[in-house]
Amino acid sequence: MAVTYEMTRERIRAAIEQQKMLRIDEVLSGLHYDNALLEDEIEVEGSGKSRIGKVWRARNGNDPVALVFETFAPDGYSGRINLVVSLDNEGRIGGVRVTSHKETPGLGDYIDPAKDQKKENLWINQFMKADATAPATHWEVKKDGGNFDYRTGATVTARAVTRAVGRAAAWVDAHREALFTAPIGTRFNAEQKE
């Protein structure tokens, strides 16, 4: 087994990076960057309820283009929903993608574009161009007085994703300059009173 592992380790790593880049490119929505994005990474600690993990920085030359970050909703109907989100340099969301979830097939799994039955109007795309500085009440589903749609029978799922995206985007926007200037590979420690 050890020999097999050694022989396939590099191919497995490359496949994982390729999958990560596919998700990242989806959320960057065509923004142009010229840096090696996966190498321009920092880890966030101390983001509290915003739950930010890794952050990748898209740059064109040395100019900031967007931040791509991992976050999650702990309160999906069937548990944790992992997300990747981009925020452009003007504080607008470029895109959101679900990277893993356990939501009910055929009911709550519409959060994943591959499972969304409405291919012409993907539920997850409604976050594109949303303003990260919008008040918290904006980041609710319409049923709760907010601005985002949900699908009947799966409100808990939509509510969890919407709130998670709003919290994380607001936190990243508030720390945008510091996140862009932090040295590559560091652990960014941001104390935030929440």
Number of domains: 1
User: What's the number of extended β-strand segments?
Assistant: 6
Strand order of the largest sheet: 5-4-3-2-1-6
How many helical elements? 3
Low-confidence segments, given as residue ranges, are none
The main sheet comes to: 6 strands, mixed
What's the mean pLDDT score?
Answer: 90
User: What is the H-and-E element order?
Assistant: HEEEEEHHE
What radius of gyration results from the CA coordinates?
Answer: 17 Å
DSSP strand content: 15-25%
Tell me the distance between the termini.
Answer: 48 Å
The structure class reads alpha+beta
Shape: globular
Q: What is the helix content?
A: 25-40%
Helix and strand arrangement:
Blueprint: H1 2-28, E1 41-45, E2 54-60, E3 63-76, E4 79-88, E5 93-100, H2 155-174, H3 176-181, E6 187-189
Parallel strand pairs: 1-6
Antiparallel strand pairs: 1-2, 2-3, 3-4, 4-5
Tell me about this structure.
This protein is α+β, with helices and mostly antiparallel strands and 194 residues long. It has one domain (2-189). The chain is 27% helix and 24% strand. The chain starts with a helix and ends in a 5-residue tail after the last strand.
